[in-house]
Specification:
Udp-n-acetylmuramoylalanyl-d-glutamate--2,6- Diaminopimelate Ligase, Chain: A, domain 1; UDP-N-acetylmuramoyl-L-alanine:D-glutamate ligase; Protein-Tyrosine Phosphatase, Chain A; 3 domains
């Protein structure tokens, strides 16, 4: 195969996709009849695994190295990643009857997405981002799972540098958008809190520029109302929030969140959830607002939220044979760390203990932000264990500090009848501790 055989028109590639509508980028996971896209990374070249993918069951392999394209099972394109993204966008554009909602924000994206999906799936087909596939590869893969069934697509998008949400919004072309909140995260990439606001606001910019339906706006979230100026919005917030159409509040949180919500002239709806963390009121209210907007009855919304169970180390309550755990170890930044500590303060329990991992990607703000955490916990110093070099720089006398998670594992067998908060960036690997406690 030579340069003249390069496929550049997206319509031809889409015809292949229609015959083989399952896409994979992993040569170890190749459903029979699927399409393999040979992506490149810093330490790998998917072109080198194309032949293996075909042997494992793929029907075709999309590659950008002419040397491996030895027969008709290979589709040669100028750039595999661009081909994947163009194909995903083209597929999304083929289903105008499907309501696409794009979600971004500093914290709560995944939980909010799953709560919305739980509510909407009670009335219509829903496809939504699985796990944390919210980047320039995961978003196209999610879009390619959409079906033209008149239902909903809930697409989570993340970023750690300016311009990424703008590019992902172009791929997704959402009908409506949600920014969960704006907080201090990925400061090394965004440069400052103002940089975070501008980057997350790229979703609002897309909705505004392309005259889309509008947004779901949490008017109780700092900065979002100002950022959303001029946009059509379904407005919701905490009880007493100005300009809200739907209000909600935490009833109790001990340890699971019970909350209530209402719309003007309607009675309060009370829901007992299986979520840990009073901060989840914002995620829950977003799901309520979305459900109400699309006509889901109150009893159905309530049942969906009551039955939702968190997973993947996000706001999980775990009771082991020896201890009780609040596990929120998927990610951490100054905003989510503060929320986790606030919530833990509200829980009434004896023998509280904090095992905290460092917060990554904070750049020049890292030392100051870690210092704030240890200063806040100074009164409980003897019950605090810290993990990571960033905490080591600021850990005061009385707080035990470990360079990495492996150092504290041998000590866990001595912990009994403790109520423990486990919170840290995913890279600190605190998620490994639950099974040892």
């Amino acid at each position: 195969m030579n340069q003249r055989n390069i496929m550049t028109d997206i319509e031809s590639l889409y015809e292949v996709f229609r015959k083989h509508p399952v896409v994979t980028t992993d040569s170890r996971r190749c459903p029979r009849g699927s399409m393999f896209f040979a992506l490149k990374g810093e330490n790998f070249d998917g072109n080198l695994f194309a032949a293996k993918a075909l042997e494992q069951g793929c029907a075709v392999a999309v590659v950008d190295d002419s040397r491996v394209a030895v027969d008709k099972r290979y589709i040669l394109v100028p750039d595999v990643l661009q081909a994947l993204q163009r194909l995903a966008h083209y597929h999304r554009e083929q289903m105008p009857s499907k309501m696409i909602i794009q979600i971004t924000g500093t914290n709560g994206k995944t939980t909010t997405k799953e709560l919305i999906a739980a509510v909407l799936s009670r009335m219509a087909p829903v496809q939504f981002t699985q796990g944390n596939l919210n980047n320039h590869i995961g978003v196209p893969l999610t879009l390619l799972t959409l079906e033209d069934d008149g239902g909903f697509g809930i697409i989570e998008t993340g970023a750690n540098h300016p311009g990424e949400i703008a590019r992902l919004s172009e791929l997704v072309d959402p009908d409506m958008g949600i920014i969960t909140n704006v907080g201090k995260a990925h400061l090394a990439g965004f440069g400052s809190y103002e940089g975070v606001k501008k980057a997350k606001g790229e979703l609002y910019d897309y909705i505004r520029i392309h005259n889309k339906i509008g947004i779901f706006l949490n008017v109780s979230a700092p900065d979002l109302p100002e950022m959303a100026e001029g946009l059509g919005a379904v407005r919701y917030g905490l009880t007493g929030a100005k300009d809200a159409e739907i209000w909600g509040e935490v009833v109790e949180c001990n340890p699971f969140v019970k909350f209530r919500y209402r719309q003007e002239h309607n009675q309060w709806q009370v829901v007992q959830t299986r979520l840990i963390g009073s901060y989840n009121i914002h995620n829950l209210m977003t799901a309520v607002a979305v459900g109400m907007q699309f006509g889901v009855p109150f009893p159905v919304i309530n049942d969906a939220l009551a039955e939702y169970a968190p997973h993947n180390n996000r706001s999980e309550f775990v009771r082991t044979r020896r201890n009780s755990l609040v596990v929120d170890a998927y990610n951490a930044n100054p905003s989510s760390m503060a929320e986790a500590l606030n919530n833990f303060d509200r829980i009434q329990a004896d023998n509280k203990m904090w095992i905290l991992g460092e917060m990554r990607e904070l750049g020049v703000d890292s030392e100051a932000e870690h210092r704030k955490v240890v200063e806040r916990l100074a009164a409980n110093a003897s019950h605090v264990w810290l993990v990571g070099e960033e905490f080591k720089k600021v850990a005061p006398t009385g707080m035990r500090c470990f360079g990495e998670v492996e150092e504290l594992k041998p000590l866990l067998a001595d912990l009994h009848e403790q109520f423990i908060l486990i919170k840290g960036s995913n890279g600190t690997k605190l998620y490994q501790l639950s099974s040892l406690l």
